[in-house]
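Our platform keeps sequence and structure together, in a single record for each protein. Such a record has a labelled line for the sequence and another for the backbone structure tokens. Nothing more is needed to write down the fold, since each code stands for a local backbone conformation. For reference, a complete record is included directly beneath this paragraph:
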Amino acid sequence: MMTISGLAREGGVGVETVRFYQRRGLLNLPERQGGVRRYDAEHARRLRFIRGAQAAGFTLEQIGELLTLDAGQDRARARALAAERLAALDAKIAELEAARKSLRRLAHQCAASEEGPCPIIAAFEG
């Protein structure tokens, strides 16, 4: 059993983050014991789940759904959410790769000539 600060430390977050997750319904609020709320290993497991899902790019709404699926064992919906997230990541990766390719081209053009305006600056001016 641990206090909210112990739970926060265990999850690598601040106390206000724990409270935020509680307000969002992602973490339940335990009853007071002797005037102090005590959190257990299940709270810590759930907090680690939330943090891991956030690191994978899931929104808090999606995390809430995943948490309910965790209880209901709905693997098909969990796979669908993961597929949606993968598609979004693939799109973002493609966007970043295109930006990298463009910036490399501009850097090469900039290095190739000392005359006229810098191609990098000119590209961003419109």
